[in-house]
Amino acid sequence: MKVFSIGLFGLLLFISSAHAGILINSTRVIYPAESSEVTLGMINNATTPRLIQSWIDDGDADASPGKISVPFVVTPPISRINPGQGQSLRISFIGGNVPTDRESVFWLNILEIQPKPGVKTNATDSYLKFSVRSRLKIFYRPEGLTGSPNGAASTLSWHLIQNGNDYKLECVNPSAYNVSISEVRFIDEAENADNKNNGMCPAKGSKLFRVNKPVASVASKIVFITINDLGGFKKNEADYRR
């Protein structure tokens, strides 16, 4: 899940979701094709009301909500949540041209807008107002797919690609399920909590992950951490070819 804060002068800042007043009860949305709708819960953990705007995009984070065409609707698109109160978003598939042999990925945007301060000490007082935007993946899962989401990681194959001093691991995913990965490293490397080498290996597709130079005599395997439907993490090991 990615979280943004838009502050003074329109400056875009990355902040932790802990700074947001709205708590979302999941880090991703799984939409089985046989469902008429799925719901996502939120609660306002702040001491002031929050205005929430919600919309879905197809991967372009900068697209204007009014110009996006996706096969989903989210309701309510705008809502107010008082302190300590909750709100459910309903996501419905309205039909469209999506693959039936693999998962498709869309993004749910939740924009949290803080209220203006109620009191100013004088007319010249200024204030800083933040809006926090969260983006969650929506995995649209057709019926009858072969394999399973939990088994998809074991089908991945890995290939080390070197271009001068630049090293990348190509992940190839033959399965029908997208595999979210929070970290990729060689087995001889120490676990790195700040590792930014993450992403998603798409269903029936591939992705490149930048890695450090391997130690030839030791790095016979790689370690990669996957994220499941519930947001849990699993450590995996795999061979790779050069």
Could you please describe the fold and organization of this structure?
With 242 residues, the chain is mostly beta strands. It folds into two domains: 2-141, Immunoglobulin-like; 152-239, Immunoglobulin-like (Sandwich). Helices cover 0% and strands 48% of the residues. The protein has no helices and 18 strands. The protein has strands at residues 2-6, 12-14, 22-24, 28-32, 38-44, 50-57, 72-75, 78-81, 86-93, 104-113, 131-141, 157-163, 166-173, 179-186, 199-201, 205-211, 221-227, 233-239. Strands 1, 2, 4, 6, 8, 10 and 11 form a seven-stranded mixed beta sheet that branches. Strands 3-5-9-7 form a four-stranded antiparallel beta sheet, with no helix packed on it. It has a four-stranded antiparallel beta sheet with strand order 15-14-17-18, with no helix packed on it. Strand 17 and strand 18 form a beta hairpin. The protein is globular and about 60 Å long. The model is unreliable at 2-18 (pLDDT under 50).
Share in β-strands:
over 45%
Return the CATH class of the largest domain: Mainly Beta
DSSP summary, beta strand count = 18
The CATH topology of the largest domain is given as Immunoglobulin-like
User: What is the ordering of alpha helices and beta strands?
Assistant: EEEEEEEEEEEEEEEEEE
Helical stretch count? 0
Sheet with the most strands, sense and barrel status:
7 strands, mixed
Radius of gyration: 21 Å
Uncertain runs with pLDDT below 50, 5 residues or more? Answer: 2-18
